[in-house]
Amino acid sequence: DIIPPCRLLTVIYLYDNIINKIENFNFAENLTHLYLQNNRIQKLENLDCCSKLQKLYIGGNQIQVLEGLDKCIYLTEIYAENQRLPEEILNVSGNNLDSLVELSCLERLQELTANNNNLENLRELVQLLSVWSRLKRLDTSRNPICSKSRYRERLIVVSTTLEMLDGKQITDNSRQFLMSWKATREAQHMKEKSKPNLLYNGNDVLGNG
Questions:
Q1: Helices (H), strands (E): how many in the chain?
Q2: What are the C-alpha distances in Å from 51 to residues 30, 48, 67, 199?
Q3: Which of 2, 72, 104, 191 has its CA 20 to 30 A from that of 138?
Q4: Is the dihedral of CA 60, 63, 67, 68 positive or negative?
Q5: What is the CATH number of the domain that holds 99?
Q6: Whole-model pTM above 0.70?
Q7: Which residues face 77 on adjacent strands?
Q8: What was the pLDDT predicted at 64?
Q9: Three-state DSSP class for 64?
Q10: pLDDT at 174
Q11: pLDDT confidence of 126, banded at 50, 70, 90?
Protein backbone atom coordinates (compact mmCIF):
# COMPACT_ATOMS: atom_id res chain seq x y z
CA ASP A 1 0.00 0.00 0.00
CA ILE A 2 1.09 3.56 -0.71
CA ILE A 3 1.71 5.54 2.46
CA PRO A 4 0.37 9.11 2.29
CA PRO A 5 2.88 11.95 2.83
CA CYS A 6 3.79 12.56 6.47
CA ARG A 7 5.11 16.10 6.41
CA LEU A 8 5.68 16.28 10.16
CA LEU A 9 7.75 13.09 10.23
CA THR A 10 11.45 13.92 10.65
CA VAL A 11 12.89 10.83 12.39
CA ILE A 12 12.50 7.14 11.49
CA TYR A 13 13.86 4.24 13.56
CA LEU A 14 14.28 0.99 11.62
CA TYR A 15 17.31 -0.52 13.33
CA ASP A 16 17.58 -4.19 14.42
CA ASN A 17 15.24 -5.54 11.77
CA ILE A 18 15.82 -7.84 8.79
CA ILE A 19 15.71 -5.13 6.15
CA ASN A 20 17.45 -6.10 2.90
CA LYS A 21 16.72 -3.02 0.83
CA ILE A 22 16.15 0.70 1.34
CA GLU A 23 12.90 1.65 -0.36
CA ASN A 24 9.51 3.38 -0.11
CA PHE A 25 10.58 6.56 1.68
CA ASN A 26 8.64 8.87 -0.63
CA PHE A 27 6.17 9.59 2.16
CA ALA A 28 8.88 11.16 4.37
CA GLU A 29 10.00 14.17 2.36
CA ASN A 30 11.00 16.11 5.50
CA LEU A 31 13.02 13.30 7.05
CA THR A 32 16.19 14.53 8.80
CA HIS A 33 17.33 11.48 10.82
CA LEU A 34 17.25 7.88 9.58
CA TYR A 35 18.31 4.93 11.75
CA LEU A 36 19.00 1.72 9.80
CA GLN A 37 21.62 -0.01 11.95
CA ASN A 38 21.99 -3.78 12.23
CA ASN A 39 20.06 -4.90 9.18
CA ARG A 40 21.05 -6.73 5.99
CA ILE A 41 21.38 -3.75 3.69
CA GLN A 42 24.04 -4.13 0.99
CA LYS A 43 23.46 -0.97 -1.03
CA LEU A 44 22.55 2.66 -0.36
CA GLU A 45 19.71 3.49 -2.73
CA ASN A 46 16.30 5.13 -3.09
CA LEU A 47 17.16 8.07 -0.84
CA ASP A 48 16.77 10.78 -3.50
CA CYS A 49 13.40 11.68 -2.01
CA CYS A 50 15.04 12.40 1.37
CA SER A 51 16.67 15.64 0.29
CA LYS A 52 16.50 17.10 3.82
CA LEU A 53 18.29 14.19 5.47
CA GLN A 54 20.95 15.38 7.93
CA LYS A 55 22.06 12.26 9.81
CA LEU A 56 22.21 8.71 8.48
CA TYR A 57 22.93 5.70 10.70
CA ILE A 58 23.81 2.56 8.71
CA GLY A 59 26.24 0.72 11.01
CA GLY A 60 26.12 -3.06 11.23
CA ASN A 61 25.04 -3.72 7.64
CA GLN A 62 26.86 -5.06 4.56
CA ILE A 63 27.48 -1.81 2.67
CA GLN A 64 30.72 -1.57 0.70
CA VAL A 65 30.17 1.73 -1.15
CA LEU A 66 28.76 5.02 0.13
CA GLU A 67 26.69 6.07 -2.86
CA GLY A 68 23.25 7.29 -3.84
CA LEU A 69 23.44 10.33 -1.58
CA ASP A 70 23.85 13.06 -4.19
CA LYS A 71 20.40 14.53 -3.55
CA CYS A 72 20.90 14.59 0.23
CA ILE A 73 22.46 18.04 0.16
CA TYR A 74 21.97 18.68 3.90
CA LEU A 75 23.61 15.44 4.99
CA THR A 76 26.36 16.23 7.51
CA GLU A 77 26.85 12.98 9.45
CA ILE A 78 27.09 9.36 8.31
CA TYR A 79 27.66 6.56 10.80
CA ALA A 80 28.79 3.43 8.95
CA GLU A 81 30.68 1.48 11.61
CA ASN A 82 30.89 -2.33 11.90
CA GLN A 83 29.98 -3.22 8.34
CA ARG A 84 29.91 -6.99 7.85
CA LEU A 85 31.91 -7.06 4.65
CA PRO A 86 32.80 -10.41 3.08
CA GLU A 87 36.06 -9.19 1.55
CA GLU A 88 36.71 -6.17 3.76
CA ILE A 89 36.57 -3.76 0.83
CA LEU A 90 35.10 -0.28 1.23
CA ASN A 91 34.54 2.61 -1.16
CA VAL A 92 33.65 6.02 0.31
CA SER A 93 34.68 8.19 -2.63
CA GLY A 94 33.04 11.52 -3.44
CA ASN A 95 31.14 12.01 -0.19
CA ASN A 96 32.71 15.27 1.08
CA LEU A 97 34.22 13.41 4.04
CA ASP A 98 36.72 15.35 6.13
CA SER A 99 37.56 12.43 8.43
CA LEU A 100 37.81 8.63 8.33
CA VAL A 101 37.80 8.12 12.09
CA GLU A 102 34.39 6.43 11.97
CA LEU A 103 36.03 3.61 9.98
CA SER A 104 38.69 2.92 12.60
CA CYS A 105 36.66 -0.04 13.87
CA LEU A 106 37.21 -1.89 10.56
CA GLU A 107 40.40 -3.56 11.76
CA ARG A 108 40.23 -6.22 9.02
CA LEU A 109 39.98 -3.69 6.21
CA GLN A 110 42.09 -4.69 3.21
CA GLU A 111 41.11 -2.16 0.56
CA LEU A 112 39.87 1.40 1.02
CA THR A 113 38.97 3.87 -1.71
CA ALA A 114 38.37 7.37 -0.35
CA ASN A 115 39.29 9.65 -3.23
CA ASN A 116 37.59 12.94 -4.09
CA ASN A 117 36.70 13.93 -0.52
CA ASN A 118 37.87 16.71 1.84
CA LEU A 119 40.48 14.77 3.80
CA GLU A 120 43.34 16.97 5.00
CA ASN A 121 44.50 15.60 8.38
CA LEU A 122 47.64 13.60 7.64
CA ARG A 123 48.32 12.80 11.29
CA GLU A 124 44.88 11.23 11.62
CA LEU A 125 45.43 9.04 8.56
CA VAL A 126 48.83 7.92 9.86
CA GLN A 127 47.19 6.84 13.13
CA LEU A 128 44.45 4.97 11.25
CA LEU A 129 47.02 3.04 9.23
CA SER A 130 48.45 1.68 12.47
CA VAL A 131 44.96 0.28 13.20
CA TRP A 132 44.35 -1.10 9.71
CA SER A 133 47.10 -3.70 9.99
CA ARG A 134 45.78 -5.70 7.02
CA LEU A 135 45.30 -2.83 4.58
CA LYS A 136 46.84 -3.56 1.17
CA ARG A 137 45.32 -0.91 -1.07
CA LEU A 138 44.57 2.71 -0.23
CA ASP A 139 43.36 5.46 -2.53
CA THR A 140 43.03 8.95 -1.05
CA SER A 141 43.84 10.81 -4.25
CA ARG A 142 42.09 14.09 -5.09
CA ASN A 143 42.03 15.14 -1.44
CA PRO A 144 43.73 18.18 0.16
CA ILE A 145 45.85 15.73 2.17
CA CYS A 146 47.81 14.81 -0.96
CA SER A 147 49.52 18.22 -0.95
CA LYS A 148 50.91 17.73 2.56
CA SER A 149 54.68 17.51 2.93
CA ARG A 150 56.00 13.93 2.54
CA TYR A 151 52.43 12.61 2.30
CA ARG A 152 53.28 9.47 0.36
CA GLU A 153 56.51 8.77 2.22
CA ARG A 154 54.88 8.95 5.66
CA LEU A 155 52.07 6.58 4.72
CA ILE A 156 54.42 4.01 3.21
CA VAL A 157 56.70 4.05 6.25
CA VAL A 158 53.91 3.64 8.80
CA SER A 159 52.17 0.75 6.99
CA THR A 160 54.22 -2.35 6.25
CA THR A 161 51.29 -4.14 4.56
CA LEU A 162 50.38 -1.42 2.05
CA GLU A 163 51.02 -2.60 -1.52
CA MET A 164 49.26 0.12 -3.53
CA LEU A 165 48.80 3.82 -2.76
CA ASP A 166 46.71 6.10 -4.97
CA GLY A 167 46.93 3.65 -7.85
CA LYS A 168 50.74 3.37 -7.70
CA GLN A 169 52.50 0.21 -6.59
CA ILE A 170 54.82 0.32 -3.59
CA THR A 171 57.95 -1.68 -4.36
CA ASP A 172 60.08 -3.41 -1.75
CA ASN A 173 63.06 -1.28 -2.76
CA SER A 174 61.17 1.98 -2.25
CA ARG A 175 59.90 0.87 1.16
CA GLN A 176 63.38 -0.24 2.27
CA PHE A 177 64.84 3.07 1.11
CA LEU A 178 62.23 5.05 3.05
CA MET A 179 62.66 2.92 6.15
CA SER A 180 66.42 3.52 6.04
CA TRP A 181 65.82 7.23 5.52
CA LYS A 182 63.49 7.29 8.53
CA ALA A 183 65.98 5.40 10.73
CA THR A 184 68.77 7.82 9.75
CA ARG A 185 66.65 10.85 10.57
CA GLU A 186 65.61 9.40 13.92
CA ALA A 187 69.25 8.63 14.78
CA GLN A 188 70.29 12.18 13.91
CA HIS A 189 67.45 13.55 15.99
CA MET A 190 68.45 11.46 19.01
CA LYS A 191 72.08 12.53 18.59
CA GLU A 192 71.13 16.19 18.53
CA LYS A 193 68.87 15.70 21.52
CA SER A 194 71.62 14.06 23.56
CA LYS A 195 74.12 16.89 23.06
CA PRO A 196 74.77 18.89 26.28
CA ASN A 197 73.32 22.35 26.28
CA LEU A 198 76.35 24.46 27.27
CA LEU A 199 75.74 28.04 28.26
CA TYR A 200 78.61 30.49 28.61
CA ASN A 201 78.71 33.99 29.94
CA GLY A 202 81.26 36.57 28.92
CA ASN A 203 83.61 35.90 31.84
CA ASP A 204 83.68 32.15 31.17
CA VAL A 205 84.71 32.63 27.57
CA LEU A 206 87.15 35.49 27.90
CA GLY A 207 88.51 34.70 31.34
CA ASN A 208 88.80 37.02 34.28
CA GLY A 209 92.30 38.30 33.61
A1: 4, 9
A2: 8, 6, 14, 67
A3: 72
A4: negative
A5: 3.80.10.10
A6: no
A7: 55
A8: 83
A9: coil
A10: 85
A11: very high
27 Cβ partners below 8 Å, 6+ apart? 2, 3, 4, 5, 6, 9
At residue 101, does pLDDT exceed 70?
yes
* Amino acid residing at 25: F
Residue 13 belongs to domain spanning: 1-84
| Last residue within a domain, chosen from 84, 113, 134 | 84
pLDDT digits (tens, 9 = 90+) for 145-181: 999 988 999 999 889 899 999 999 998 888 888 888 7
Q: Looking at the structure, do residues 92 and 34 belong to the same domain, yes or no?
A: no
Verify that 149 and 64 share a domain, yes or no. Answer: no
Output the CA angle 24-30-32, nearest 5 degrees: 95
Domain count for the chain:
2
